[in-house]
Design goal:
Radius of gyration: 24 Å
Oligomer: single chain
Structural class: alpha+beta
Order of helices and strands: HHHHEEHEEEEEHHEHHEEHHHEHEEEHE
Helix content: 25-40%
Length: about 500
Amino acid sequence: MKAKKAFQNYIGSLSEDDKSRVRLFLKGYWEHCDLPAAEVKLLTGDAKAALMYLTGTGLSVEEATKRLSSENLGGFYAHKAISWYPLDDAAKVYPLSIKSGKMPIFRLSCYLKDDVVPEILQMALDFTIKRFPSFATIIRKGIFWHYLDSVKRRFPVMKDVGVPCQPLKIASVGSQSFRVMYYKNRISAEFFHVLTDGSGGLIFLKTLVAEYLHILGAPKVKGCGVMDINEPPVLTELSNDFERLCPKTKKSGGFAGPAALQMGGRLSKNTPCKVVQLIYDTGDLLKCAHDKGVSVTALVLSMMFLANRSATEVNKGMLQFQVPVNMRKFFPESDSLRNFSMYCSIDLSPSEVNKIDEVAPKVADQLKQKTTFSEMSVMMTTARRLVTSVKLVPLLIKAPIARIIYGFLGDSRFSNTLSNLGKVEMPSELCDYIQGFDFILGTCVVSRASCALCSFGNNTVLSVSKNTKDPSFEERLAAISEELGIRPQIVETPLYG
């Protein structure tokens, strides 16, 4: 009622010409929405709130209604939801691997130089979602596999509270597999990995941020991963490129392997119980890696090996780190927004993990050997064969079997994970509005930490998601950084249980 009264007062303050403009503006929204009355009310409510905000900043009604034009809705809310999408090869296992209320979630965030305006962010999402139809879906169970079923409704933005990467309630009626949140100057998007990987998720976030900034007056741009929201989706963006581009090789390899040596520390009931971010100067980090003769990924992995070794008193077993590999670098023709990543395992025995100058060359050699096209082709072929081998097994029977076949016996296969998203780029016209980006992985069931890395401008952010409140790993990581002369700024969430 307060919103209705506020809009009535707002309309009453306008000139007759502007009242006419607003009536035509809202008429356009009603014409673009063939949804239940409650959904239409929410969407028009978004438009009203954004209009009042923009004109409240001194913008004319004419310019505000132009920026918020209902043409940006396209036919998304006017067409019935009839599409569905089979899961890609990587995504097929994610609904099966959910255990004890935990699920593979990751977060991508953009930090602006000004605080987020929720009304404008909501409009940006209302406009942007149509460009990503496979995201505007819910997960359903089929006879043989889960699948993504289209839904046509408003997707709400939420205020960000608590720790990142909490499980989504995908079993709820009308639930979604992603969420958009805001806090102060931060816009975050969290995804259930069934939808996309880090590359696809980043394109969504970039496009959303660009549309948000455009509504506020920034130039309309595309490029560097920013899409034009009013262009129709390209069919290959929705494809399962594991199937479409799988190399023809007779070799295959296994996903399962021996259990890895895990860090100590009691597992927390609430996960992640905290997230620690180490923010490095990108130039200093690059110089340190260059001085060691390795890549930034190899340098950070080496630091993690040393920190992992310090966070356990056990000497038996192997330290095994999972490193996702973006397959798009081998297949430049791929523009899929869905999962198209494999992984390799970097393995060292505790006896090999003593000094950074000894560890770094070994890590670099393994990275070079295990991330080649031929090695990744074997992994990709294996994934295809495993999917094909169980495709006609009913889902009810397949679920427990799939965990074994894919090596998802908890996540005991790995001691830790490092996912490096690399350098995040935005169109130059938008960089003055942006402070930075970060990337956070949700925690697993057994391993005590998961790490994610990305850089923007002069900052490189290493995010450590913790499954235990034991601080040994991150404390040692910070100490090693200082020893290397790359002292990071450290930001930490509160502890939760």
